[in-house]
Design brief:
Oligomer: single chain
Distance between the termini: 51 Å
Strand order of the largest sheet: 2-1-3-4-5
Strand content: 15-25%
Order of helices and strands: EHEHEHEHEHEEEEHEHHEE
Radius of gyration: 18 Å
Number of helices: 8
Helix content: 40-55%
Structural class: alpha/beta
Largest sheet: 5 strands, parallel
Number of strands: 12
């Protein structure tokens, strides 16, 4: 797989290129946001690793501009560990968020997870769920079109947010264990992904503007709350 690494730190960049190359990736490394965007426009990448602390542009701005250019998976790799930065990055369209310092095996697992989920070849049509429209109270989830409406208004979700919602929506009222959601949506069993799941749930609730639809079952996981019969 061809991978774009946007990282200005020489030590970190060189080490990452060496590790990723040993694991079979064809790595193209750039040191700034503008150079990275130029590479993205040229296309041909399966995954983009994006540092946030770039010398010319803020990494969040770069992510937003990347998402307007392509659906190629973006993994933010940064020292910014606060929840606000995580949520902001995911809302901008990042597929994952890895905090430095990280274990190399963790990063490799996340790269493989997003590439399996989306397909390394961007020219190939994306894998879609079975066609159908799920009507759940005020919310409509159209699986084949990957679209969501709440109270008739379109809701813009990131890839992972939609995958999470679609999983819950296909079996409303059923409790999904955290490990099961992580396995199905992120296709990994790594325990640290649990924090990423919490961030995605918080972002999903905010975007739906109906936080009660995604219910936390304490100590177990999450479920899509069934509308109360006769309510409204």
């Amino acid at each position: 797989m061809r991978l774009l690494l946007v990282e200005d730190d020489e030590h970190v960049g060189a080490a990452l290129v060496a590790v990723l190359s040993r694991h079979g990736f064809d790595v193209v490394r750039v040191r700034g946001g503008e150079e990275g965007l130029a590479k993205v426009r040229a296309g041909g990448f399966g995954v983009i690793l994006l540092d946030l602390g770039l010398p010319d542009l803020d990494g969040f701005e770069v992510c937003g501009r990347i998402r307007r250019l392509t659906s190629t998976p973006v993994i933010m790799v940064t020292a910014r560990a606060d929840v606000r930065s995580r949520v902001h990055g995911l809302n901008l369209g990042a597929d994952d968020y890895v905090v430095k310092p990280y274990d190399t095996a963790e990063l490799l697992a996340r790269i493989h997870a997003v590439s399996r989920r989306t397909g390394a070849d961007e020219s190939a049509p994306p894998e879609e769920p079975a066609p159908g429209v799920l009507v759940l109270g005020p919310m409509e989830v159209e699986l084949s079109a990957r679209s969501v409406r709440v109270d008739g208004e379109r809701v813009q979700l990131t890839r992972k947010e939609f995958d999470l919602l679609a999983l819950l929506a296909q079996r409303p009222g059923v409790v999904f264990r955290r490990e099961q959601i992580i396995s199905d949506v992120w296709q990994t069993s790594w325990e640290g992904t649990g924090r990423t799941l919490e961030v995605h749930v918080a972002s999903l609730r905010a975007k739906l503007r109906r936080p009660e639809l995604v219910e936390t079952v304490r100590g177990v996981g999450y479920r899509l709350a069934l509308p109360t019969p006769g309510a409204g």
